[in-house]
Amino acid sequence: MNGVRFHTKERERHRRTQNSGVVVHGHHQGSPVDFYGVLHDIIELRYMGWRKVYLFSCAWYDVGDPRRGIRVRDHLTIVNTARQWYKDEPFTLACQALQVFYLTDPTLGGSWEVVHKITNRNVYNIRLMTTTDDENDDEESSGAEAEDDDQALLHNYPPILESESTMADPLNRVNEENLQVDAAFIPRREKELYNFLLFLLQ
């Protein structure tokens, strides 16, 4: 789901890897809560028009009891996997679930496990760029783009010689004499472009 492989707890028993741990960001009594759990079943709902929705059926750990269910320390979150919560609401949308791993806690032991949130390989969280409708911003940005284009035109192209075999057409007109234009009449940017073109025609 979204580039992340999830397995049910049952399927995981025969494997060395752990892919059944989930966390879902939600709310409990008006305050934000991370619901930690383990995946028991994956359900596919099919609708007309070949539309599909995937649900995860999970066993949620008791994160409502800060003493017997969850302990949050400086850089660790530890859950008691023996205590469950929301048994009558096991479902979550698969697209809302993030993957976590559970590691045995050596200090508390028993059914206490440390939650390890991971960053998946080849899955990137790219920030969205916001745009404004301000006309001034549009004019400034288009002006900057035009200036960048001019700089690329003036500095990034290698000189092309007329004698090269890649030249399909010459850059100057053969049936006309060269026309000299006084540089004082040419604005700065156009002057740079004019000098560049003269360089090419030599």
Automatic annotation (TrEMBL):
Chain ranges of the DUF4216 domain: 43-115
Residue ranges, annotated region (Disordered): 1-25
Protein name: DUF4216 domain-containing protein
Biased composition annotated in UniProt, kind: Basic residues: 1-17
Cross-referenced Pfam families: DUF4216
TM stretches of this protein: none
